[in-house]
Q: What sequence folds into this?
């Protein structure tokens, strides 16, 4: 049986490359995972030992291994074996080992690997390649490493490409090169990308040198100081889990932060008491709302509701008002950035500035704007951005007059949980 595939030019070039290391540097949706499946197919038909890596175990199982099995079902249906529990495919003497960047050490100890396929390799650790090269040893082994990825500003992969440009085969492609993507889909990607630097990276696969790329809060943003035109205020509360992170309260009046509270261990009762003190100090008639992260704040929500205070319970992962954002937390941070850009804001302490500057944004796999994981921020600054989260919560809604606030808070809470 003869099967004909219609591949894009850059995909054909990638598959035909004979270099020891071949890189497909491409924008989102340029067909990287598809071409990875073809390389895996051809290598397995040669009965080679292959390692394929994906971003996460979920991406490996649902995307990359599924795509590879689709190719195998088209070419050698029923002639291979697949173990779902360990993500392993065997065909005669050939084998494919599926792994993820979440557990890179799993490849240690592997030998006689002929082909390594690294999907979205920019998300891997900078030490992975050195580990893999020791796996590609054995008699009659000609090693080939295939990488495909969209660049990531500030990451090791961008530096690797620059340093090895004359030693490896680099094939470039953009999202627009994929003729299977519609103009409407491309337009949506453009609309959902906040700035031109990120657009060049995500859509065109360009390596961006701008150190501020992906930053919401740049240093110059904190130098703006304007007259406060609003005497209304909001309180944001981010509760810690099991005492590992911090309980934080940020109080914002217009374009001024007027109070910051941070404590690692305290009870729900302590938090409520502190909020009551804030209200006594700044006035109940000027309070617009109290916004609380619902992950660990349920007890505080109930206590504040019992006191008939205006509370908005906010699930960070819930749906945003605007579809361009991945979730409510991302939308709140962008609301904060836009407000500061237009109105200015004073009262930051150094810790809050550090957390905000470390909070970067990306385009996720659904082409929506998302904040980088908290774990990445924690690795960068040494702690979770709890204070920044409490600050962002004060932007879940606009500061409006008391007459409209109770209805707005009720409607928002209902929408978030419907």
A:
């Amino acid at each position: 049986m003869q099967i004909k595939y219609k591949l894009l030019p850059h995909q054909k070039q990638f598959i035909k490359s004979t270099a020891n290391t071949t890189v497909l540097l491409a924008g989102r949706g340029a067909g990287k995972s598809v071409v990875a499946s073809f390389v895996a197919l051809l290598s397995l038909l040669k009965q080679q030992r292959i390692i394929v890596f994906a971003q996460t175990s979920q991406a490996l199982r649902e995307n990359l291994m599924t795509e590879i099995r689709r190719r195998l079902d088209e070419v050698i249906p029923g002639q291979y074996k697949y173990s779902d529990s360990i993500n392993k495919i065997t065909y005669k003497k050939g084998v494919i080992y599926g792994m993820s960047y979440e557990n890179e050490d799993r490849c240690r100890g592997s030998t006689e690997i002929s082909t390594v396929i690294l999907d979205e390799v920019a998300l891997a650790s900078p030490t992975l390649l050195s580990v893999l090269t020791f796996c590609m040893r054995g008699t009659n082994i000609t090693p080939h490493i295939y990488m495909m990825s969209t660049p990531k500003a500030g990451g090791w992969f961008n530096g690797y490409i620059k340093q090895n440009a004359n030693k490896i085969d680099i094939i470039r492609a953009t999202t627009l090169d994929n003729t299977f993507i519609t103009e409407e889909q491309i337009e949506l990607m453009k609309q959902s990308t906040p700035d031109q630097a990120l657009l060049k990276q995500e859509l065109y696969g360009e390596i961006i040198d701008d150190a501020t790329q992906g930053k919401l809060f740049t240093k110059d943003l904190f130098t703006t100081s304007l007259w406060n035109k609003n005497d209304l205020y909001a309180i944001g509360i981010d509760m810690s889990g099991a005492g590992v992170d911090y309980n934080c309260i940020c109080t914002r009046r217009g374009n001024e932060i007027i109070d910051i509270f941070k404590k690692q261990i305290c009870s729900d009762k302590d938090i409520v008491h502190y909020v009551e003190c804030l209200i006594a100090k700044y006035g109940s008639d000027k309070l617009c709302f109290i916004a609380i992260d619902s992950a660990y704040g349920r007890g505080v929500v109930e206590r504040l509701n019992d006191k008939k205070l205006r509370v908005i319970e906010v699930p960070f992962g819930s749906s945003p008002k605007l579809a361009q954002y991945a979730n409510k937390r991302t939308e709140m941070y962008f609301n904060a950035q836009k407000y500061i850009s237009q109105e200015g804001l004073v009262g930051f302490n150094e810790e809050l500035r550090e957390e905000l500057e470390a909070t970067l944004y990306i385009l996720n796999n659904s082409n929506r704007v998302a904040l980088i994981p908290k774990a990445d921020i924690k690795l960068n600054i040494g702690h979770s951005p709890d204070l920044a989260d409490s600050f962002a919560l004060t932007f879940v809604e606009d500061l409006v007059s008391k007459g409209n606030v109770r209805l707005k808070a009720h409607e928002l809470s209902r929408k978030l949980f419907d």
Notes: The chain has a mean pLDDT of 89. The radius of gyration is 25 Å.
